[in-house]
Design brief:
It contains 19 helices and ten strands. The protein is an alpha/beta fold and about 475 residues long.
Amino acid sequence: MISPAKAAESIRSLWIGADLPLIGRRRERRMRLLAGLLMVAMGCVWGIVFSLRGSWAIVLMDLALILSGLGVLALSLKHHPRTANLLLFATLILVIVGSTLVLDAPTAAAPRATHLYLLPLAVAAVMAFRDEPLWLRHGVALVCLTLFACLAASPWSPLREYNLPDPLRTVGSWVQSLAAMAMLFMLLHILQTDAVERLQLDQELRTALQEEQFVLHYQPQLDIHGRVFGAEVLLRWQHPQRGLLPPGHFIEHAEKTGFIIPLGAWVLRKTCAQLQAWSIDPAFRELQLAVNISQNQMRQAAFVPELLAIIDGQPHIARHLELELTETLIIRDVAELTAKMATLVEHGVRFSLDDFGTGFSSLAHLKNLPLSKLKIDRSFVSDVLTDDSSKAIVSTVITLGQSLGMSVVAEGVETQQQQRFLLEHGCTQFQGYLFSKPLPLEAFVAYVRQQGTPDAVAQQPSAEVELPRQS
C-alpha cells in the first residue's frame, strides 16, 4: 500500500504541471497510439474493400497492417517505445512502398501520390528516434527519403491489374496529396514547437542555477534502533511559476544536454557546505550525506580534482560524504572509474552502489571496486512480500553485502511488513516513506532532533525495537 505522504506528493506533482521532457514523451506516446489505431482502422477498411474485389494478395497486406497496428498499441501501452517505433516505421514503410508499386501505377489521368506519405514519415522518424543513436535516427529518415525519390522517378508497377479505376484514383491522388502535405505541415509544426520548448527549458535551467532556484531535500536513513545515521540528498527545483518540481521533471533533460555537469557540481558544493556547517553540532556532526553522481559527471576529467578542491583541508566533509553510483556507470570504463574512486577513497570519501540488482554489474566489480555500501532497489522491496523472485534477490543482496563487508540499505520501505521481512533477513538500515518522505532542510533538522542519531543517543537493545512511521 502506498503511504499517504507518497500519495500526496504524487498528486501534487500532477497539479503543479508536467515538465517539458515529460510532455514530449507523452506527445510521442499519444502519436504512437494514434498511429496504431489508424493502422488497424485502415487495414480493416481496405481489407473489406479488396476482399469484395477478390484481391486476396492485398487483403493479406491489410491483415499484416492490422496485426502490426495491434502490436504497436500493445508495445506502447506496455512502455516499450523503441520496439513500438521500430515496428511502426518498418510496417508503414513496407505498406507505403507496396501500395505505391502495386496499387498506384502513374497514368496520364491519375499521377502517383501514395509515395508522398514517405515525406511526413521521414520527419516523424526524426522525432520518434530523437533519443536513439544517430545511425538509427537519421537512418530511418534517410530510408524514407531515398524510397520517396526512387518511387517519384519510376513509373514501374509489377501488378497493374490491381490498380483501381482511373476516375477513382484521380480523386484519390488529390486526397492523398492533400493528406500527406497536411501531415507534413503538422509534424513540422510539432518539431518546431518541441525545439522551442527544449530551448526554453535550457534557458530556464541556466537561470535557475544562477538565481539559486534549486534546493536540496533530505530523505532520512535510519538504523535498526530508529535513529537517523544519514540522508540521501535529493534535488528539487523551486520553479517561479510551477512550484516545487521533483528531479524527474528536469534531470533527464539535464543529462542529455550536459547541464548535469554544472548542476551536479552545485549539488556537491551545497552538500559539502552543509556537512561543514553541521560539523560543529554534536547532534549532526556524524550524519552521512549521500549524493547521486551521474555518468556524465563521473566521466569528466576534472571531476576528481574539483571535488578534492572542495574538501581540501576539511577531512570531516570527506568522511561523511557518500557518492552513489549506478550499475550502468560501473560497467563502463571500469579501469578509469576504479582509479578515480581509489583517489577519492584515499581522501576519506565513501561510495555506494545505488539500485543494486537492476543492472548488469558482475560480482567482480563488487569485489574490485572500493564500495562501502549496497542499496537494494525499491522495486524489489515493494514486491518482497508478494513475489518470490524479489524475496530471493533481496535476501541474496543482504547476504552478499554482509559477506563483502559492506553495509546494506533498503530503499523504498513503505510498510511495517516490508521492514519486518528485511529485519528478519539481516538488513538493519532503511530508507522510505514508512519513516519519512524527502524533507527540506528545516524539517529534516527537526526530524533528526526528534529521532536522534547514533552518536547522540545511547545504544538500545535491538531485538524489540520498532522503527517509527511517518506521521
